[in-house]
Amino acid sequence: MSLFIGGCLLVFLQASAYGGVVQATFVQPFFPPQIQDSWAAYTPYYPVQAYTPPPKDCKITQVNIIQRHGARFPTSGAGTRIQAAVKKLQSAKTYTDPRLDFLTNYTYTLGHDDLVPFGALQSSQAGEETFQRYSFLVSKENLPFVRASSSNRVVDSATNWTEGFSAASHHVLNPILFVILSESLNDTLDDAMCPNAGSSDPQTGIWTSIYGTPIANRLNQQAPGANITAADVSNLIPLCAFETIVKETPSPFCNLFTPEEFAQFEYFGDLDKFYGTGYGQPLGPVQGVGYINELLARLTEMPVRDNTQTNRTLDSSPLTFPLDRSIYADLSHDNQMIAIFSAMGLFNQSSPLDPSFPNPKRTWVTSRLTPFSARMVTERLLCQRDGTGSGGPSRIMRNGNVQTFVRILVNDALQPLKFCGGDMDSLCTLEAFVESQKYAREDGQGDFEKCFD
Ligand SMILES: *[C@@H]1O[C@H](CO)[C@@H](O)[C@H](O)[C@H]1NC(C)=O
Ligand SMILES: *[C@@H]1O[C@H](CO)[C@@H](O)[C@H](O)[C@H]1NC(C)=O
Ligand SMILES: *[C@@H]1O[C@H](CO)[C@@H](O)[C@H](O)[C@H]1NC(C)=O
Ligand SMILES: *[C@@H]1O[C@H](CO)[C@@H](O)[C@H](O)[C@H]1NC(C)=O
Ligand SMILES: *[C@@H]1O[C@H](CO)[C@@H](O)[C@H](O)[C@H]1NC(C)=O
Ligand SMILES: *[C@@H]1O[C@H](CO)[C@@H](O)[C@H](O)[C@H]1NC(C)=O
Hints:
Elements: E1 2-5, E2 8-12, E3 29-30, H1 33-36, E4 58-68, H2 76-90, H3 117-134, E5 145-149, H4 152-168, E6 177-181, H5 201-222, H6 230-247, H7 259-276, H8 289-300, H9 312-315, E7 327-332, H10 334-344, H11 366-369, E8 375-383, E9 403-410, E10 413-414, E11 428-429, H12 430-436, H13 438-441, H14 447-450
Parallel strand pairs: 4-7, 5-6, 5-7
Antiparallel strand pairs: 1-2, 2-3, 4-8, 8-9, 9-10, 9-11
Bound molecules: 2-acetamido-2-deoxy-beta-D-glucopyranose (NAG) (6 copies).
């Protein structure tokens, strides 16, 4: 099905049965890439690269997934700011541009904070896809172990994920959401445990006044007297994303901005994450340490060693933190995943993002890092190679000798893992990976204490 509305092509893609195996139904509003891929944190998940199957000498033995909840309504704070900006536009007596005429009879109807139906679908598709990709790892005795942070939208994403997994197995394998970590207590799946962490407001503020001012000036010509400010622009552009995702049809707000302006909004989102809990925030990465220590425990099948956000009671019990499963799935938030990427060394930039100038070559692009339903997957593998590759080929070992490796995919894009000597197949030995995670193993090297000083 494809609709042509207001200059935007909307296609609903629906994959069909393939090769006798029912594929995950992949349904998503699909705009020309220059728009939908510029919605920063509000871009719907898409595979950034086609999934690379493991090399022939390797066999996957364990999978660790951390996934952002699916698409949601605006948070309540954002919803209030969006409505205030819309009200300003509606206060104009007349519009000089017909693209604004819909505002004479427009009512804001979005809810707040919770998962929306499209977000539930994304989560269940992720569960289906996990079953299809890794079904050889699971059995009735070895089901995926699933945890979630306690927000409703995260819990709903987790139960939709387990439902999708179960449906894909024809209800033979029925994992359940087993642990919910309270966001007001020790929680490795949320970024709420560092009261002294700063915000990205200084950096996003600089960029907002640079990119938002000309857009505000134009809107004030199109809607005389509305008094739209640069800050309002960063609230009006995402309304295009929210309305489109909730109503599953293009929002008229999308027509008010050009593809270049959406790209400028993406940079606002990039700065927001980089300076929020990413490399640009002194107390950002430390918030990802607890999860990395849990990941190391699972990969090595050794008890968790952590003195940061972990709940020691839960993590020391085989019931609530088993070490003998093959698939672990944790449902979380974008800001937390950004902290984890930055504590681990993923998407490191050669220099910090410049708040007044987007570097077109940057690899820090929020819509590719943490879109709705984003996922980081750490695969553990046994391979017949020695792991000396470091950027090139590793030597293949004879006589059936094998060694344990890891590789990491973010939204299906294989990460090079230079920080642990990733070879040409982006494989690091487990040993080198563990070694590289010194910041986590040393509990943030003093940063965790700074959260509370
Ligand atoms: C305004 O919107 C309401 C509800 O969506 C609709 O019933 C009504 O016909 C619209 N009026 C005009 C003038 O478009
Ligand atoms: C999926 O998420 C929705 C919220 O969007 C929730 O109402 C529903 O109960 C969830 N479904 C399952 C199977 O958990
Ligand atoms: C740890 O988890 C247990 C079990 O859910 C809970 O009762 C306890 O309050 C948690 N403690 C902290 C500090 O998170
Ligand atoms: C817009 O600003 C002008 C001048 O500051 C002011 O007179 C007017 O009341 C404002 N309009 C609105 C809708 O806030
Ligand atoms: C929660 O985390 C704090 C800070 O690391 C720690 O002092 C406390 O013991 C933890 N509580 C539990 C139950 O793990
Ligand atoms: C990121 O890169 C900077 C500069 O190249 C380096 O100093 C830092 O250690 C790196 N961070 C991580 C977590 O790898």
